[in-house]
Amino acid sequence: MGELNYLEIRGETTVEVTLRDILMPLFRHRRLIVLSFVGVFLGGILAALLLANQYQAHFRVLVKRERVDPAVSSEASSQTIQPAPAVTEEEINSEVELIQSDDLLRKVVLATGLQEKENNSVLAFMRPKKTEEALVSTAVQRLAKQLNVAAVKKTDLIAVTYQSTDPQLAYRVLTALSDLYLEKHLAVHRPPGA
Predict the structure, then answer these.
(1) Greater confidence, 12 or 169?
(2) Which H or E element spans position 20?
(3) What mean pLDDT is reported for the chain?
(4) Is the dihedral of CA 104, 131, 116, 55 positive or negative?
């Protein structure tokens, strides 16, 4: 079994390696190889089941100045309309923070019923019952993690993306978020006394 065949060619000794000699380490570690194969196979199946059917919804927001404040002076000169100055990076970042604000996300959670999904999760039966306020708070935190809000580089756009296993839920969440964001944007940027 462990014998090697020696060939003598012109005074040189060479070892003839057989297929059995090559496969011998595989037979010695048969259990390790089988367990590794089964582990990788089951891990692949588990990953395919857990990561299957992820739907992504997105929208973009164009940030621009609403109006130009005319210069008021006592001189009698003709009014010239000047183009609106470019939107600054700070204004875009302010809008990103407005989209990610907790009160806006809370309204989205309540409008779409994400707190009910939090209550119906797989591990919900193992933990003690939470109050409605705790469910909403947890759903807001989860939505904040799953929501991707980023300013598009070198543009005046903000890209908002949400990913879910339910395509209708992804659509409802971003529709509610866009509607509620527009309402909040108008409330924040409304001139005083208007």
Answers:
(1) 169
(2) helix 19-28
(3) 81
(4) positive
Amino acid at 170: A
**Any long-range contacts for 152-158 (C-beta under 8 Å, 24+ apart)?**
152/60, 156/62, 156/63, 156/64, 156/87, 156/92, 157/60, 157/61, 157/62, 157/63, 158/60, 158/61, 158/63, 158/92, 158/95, 158/96, 158/99
> Residue 111: in which H helix or E strand, if any?
helix 102-112
Cβ(115)–Cβ(139) under 8 Å? yes
User: Given the structure tokens 């999904």, which residue do they identify?
Assistant: 117
Quickly tell me which residue has 């039966």 as its tokens: 125
Cβ proximity of 185 and 101 under 8 Å: no
Model pLDDT for residues 91-108, shown as the tens digit of each residue: 889 899 999 999 999 999
